[in-house]
Amino acid sequence: METDTITAISTPIGEGAIAIVRLSGPKAISITANVFKGKNLGDVASHTIHYGKIIDPETKEVAEEVMVSVMRAPKTFTREDVVEINCHGGMVAVNRVLEIILSQGARLAEPGEFTKRAFLHGRIDLSQAEAVMDLIRAKTDKAMSVALKQMDGRLSALIRRLRQDLLETVAHVEVNIDYPEYDDVEEMSHDMMRTKSKEVYKEVVELLQVAKQGKILREGLATAIIGRPNVGKSSLMNTLVQENKAIVTEVPGTTRDIIEEYVSVRGVPLRLVDTAGIRETEDIVEKIGVERSRQVLKESDLILFVLNYNDVLSEEDEKLFKAIEGLDYIVIINKTDLEQKLDLDRVYELAAEKPIVITSLVKEEGVNELEEAIAKTFFAGDIDTGDLTYVSNVRHIQLLKQAKQALEDAMEGLELGLPLDVVQIDVTRTWELLGEIIGDTASDSLIDQLFSQFCLGK
């Protein structure tokens, strides 16, 4: 277990009202007290904040005016002594305080090391630690709600219960095999293993069924806006983002590159990509943009296909319908404030059962209908973040898929009449896979890799 004291700046880099330098470890309080002019921090009560000044130990001059929070173990985030020095938010001020703290024997923390210590000291499990990062990166209220519930341990509690059920079943079967009291003990053990495997399997499947929604809430839908040049793609981007991120002109081919932005639509986070208009062109720069657009198309979860109400349906439009066949898309017929030249019957025929939304982005008409169509495409209406336990982390989803396969192998072995000690291998494997989600059976290298992805000071 770590015994040194770590420190880092825990607020974003840049100018602000305040900045915080955080310390955690056995010498957090004494190190701060060495350079703090004010109350004796060694004598103050836990979870109190104190006004004073940080003194430069070399010049003996005042380096910064601060408020110092003292929190004593074990009732802290890391379960170690923690000190937070609140100073002015300028880069010079906060870096000067950090340098002084480092000069007193603290070590600069690695990315995510505060959260890692909370995990190593049993304050949180691995899934809760990952939820800390999800909370920081949340793009919508619903994504934040899912992360908060995971931080509270909702997923952890469910996984621990499933693991306990499997462990008790394995233990019970082993006892029956080692100390048989009845002639039909093997049949009883088979029935018990079969029943419990089916129960756990059902819950794993239910978690995976909502995992797609959870992953979308966490990472956002990769959403591409496509269409021929000058149909209103950039106008749609600006309408959804509610900012002028994309250049809007009457000149076809204005968008030459990929423009990416996050936007929340009815609580659904979209990673919105405005692509260059897809058409045949001799312009070298525009041609590169078109090729990038085609690549984005392949990687998208949702496609917003924009057509021009004031233009005839071209061969290029029909090719785009073929290109997105089998994908999730919404057709947007834009510029309905102008004269109709588009063959709507043909559009409905090509779109088949896909949603079609009529808009005039200039007049901001049809935007609500579009937002509703986006939400219904993936969530059939409102998203429930209240009672459901969402799995949103890719690592968790992969482990659950492997656990599901191990349980299927176990149940197949039982149906084939394989010996219980053989079936038990798959059940134990399931127990181990579920344990990796919460960190009970995770390797040290995996733990190091996960926490290295955290931001510095967290």
Largest sheet: 7 strands, mixed
Helix- and strand-based class? alpha/beta
CA-based shape: flat
Count of DSSP strands: 13
CATH architecture of the largest domain: 3-Layer(aba) Sandwich
- Determine the mean pLDDT: 83
Radius of gyration: 29 Å
Q: Treating each run of at least 4 consecutive H or I residues as one helix, how many helices? A: 16
Q: Using the coordinates above, name the CATH class of the largest domain.
A: Alpha Beta
What's the CATH topology name of the largest domain? Answer: Rossmann fold
CATH homology superfamily name of the largest domain = P-loop containing nucleotide triphosphate hydrolases
Q: In what order do the strands lie side by side in the largest sheet?
A: 3-4-5-6-2-1-7
Beta-strand percent range:
15-25%
Helix fraction, binned, reads 40-55%
Distance from N terminus to C terminus (CA atoms, Å) equals 19 Å
Oligomer: single chain
H and E order: EEHEEEEHEHHHHHHEHEEHEHEHEHHHH
Identify low-pLDDT runs.
Answer: 244-258, 277-289
> How many domains in all?
3
Write up what this structure looks like.
The protein is built from 16 helices and 13 strands. The chain is α/β, with parallel strands linked by helices and 458 residues long. The protein has 3 domains: 6-109, 2-Layer Sandwich (Gyrase A, domain 2), CATH 3.30.1360.120; 129-210 and 391-451, tRNA modification GTPase MnmE domain 2 (Four Helix Bundle (Hemerythrin (Met), subunit A)), CATH 1.20.120; 220-379, P-loop containing nucleotide triphosphate hydrolases (Rossmann fold, 3-Layer(aba) Sandwich). α6 runs antiparallel to α7 (185-209) and α14 runs antiparallel to α15. The model is unreliable at 244-258 and 277-289 (pLDDT under 50). Exhibits a very high intrinsic GTPase hydrolysis rate. Involved in the addition of a carboxymethylaminomethyl (cmnm) group at the wobble position (U34) of certain tRNAs, forming tRNA-cmnm(5)s(2)U34. It is found in: Cytoplasm. Homodimer. Heterotetramer of two MnmE and two MnmG subunits.
